[in-house]
Amino acid sequence: DNLSLPKVRILGHILFDGCLYEKDYRYVIKYINSSKELIDQFINDIKILYGLKPSSLEIEKKSYITNYKITFVSKLLFKDLKKYFNSSSSKKNFKIPKEIMNGIKKIKIEFLRAFWEDEGSISINGRLMADQKNEKLINQLSKLHKEFGFSFKICKYLEHTGTMYKIYFLKNVDNLKKFNNLKLFDKSIVTHGKNIGKKKADIL
Q1: pLDDT (tens digit, 0 to 9) for every residue of the chain, 204 residues total?
Q2: Half-sphere exposure (Cβ direction) of 201: Cα atoms closer than 13 Å
Q3: What does the alpha-carbon distance between residue 36 and residue 165 come to, in Å, rounded to a whole number?
Q4: 86-95: long-range contacts (C-beta < 8 A, 24 or more apart)?
């Protein structure tokens, strides 16, 4: 019942690069990422909190990158995680749990780290940005970033999948130093472009 840092990470990764759903009496939790470090951390967090081992691990190797998909099938895990989100079955309506929005500083930092590690990118000229299709979520993320003094903008644009929102940081030394000090790119890697396969933290 305690909102520990491992649970904050799990909830964050479910919101961003993961999912949870019930189908044919199976309670499924998935997380997909190209960083083996993040996958291992996710597995270890669930083992520590719930004593569970993965049901499956799929590995998809591409020319320059490897994608990992970890799956847990557990009613216990599903029910516990779902209680932190609203009752809607659609992920696009999920919001950041109030326990995180009202949490202490280290809780909020850990959640922002999960967001940037899953959704964030850094361009070759050092611009930090991240995309999100959930309007409620982007507004909550905006509030959290403001609490830590980041200067940023949010723009709205259309894709074939629907409306998207982009949060991008103004490129200045203060933003980059804060981002680096909070280690918001702790374990993630670049999956596209010139720096593919490198750690985002090293590019930063």
Answers
A1: 568 999 999 999 999 999 999 989 899 999 999 999 999 999 999 999 999 999 999 999 987 899 999 999 999 999 999 999 865 556 667 889 999 999 999 999 999 999 999 999 998 888 999 999 888 899 999 999 999 999 999 999 998 888 999 999 988 899 999 999 999 999 999 998 888 999 999 999
A2: 12
A3: 27
A4: 89/21, 91/15, 91/19, 91/134, 92/133, 92/134, 93/134, 93/136, 94/15, 94/134, 94/137, 95/136, 95/137, 95/140
- pTM of the prediction? 0.93
- C-alpha dist (Å) from residue 90 to 38, 94, 145, 203: 25, 7, 25, 35
Query: What's the token pair of residue 180?
Result: 């680096």
Q: Token pair of 113, please? A: 């780290």
State whether the Cα torsion 37-47-13-58 is positive or negative. positive
Q: With contact defined as beta carbons under 8 Å apart, do 14 and 20 qualify?
A: yes
Neighbours of 199 (CB within 10 A): 16
Within the chain, where are the H helices? 5-16, 36-50, 75-82, 98-101, 105-119, 135-147, 173-181, 200-203
DSSP 57-68: EEEEE-SS-EEE
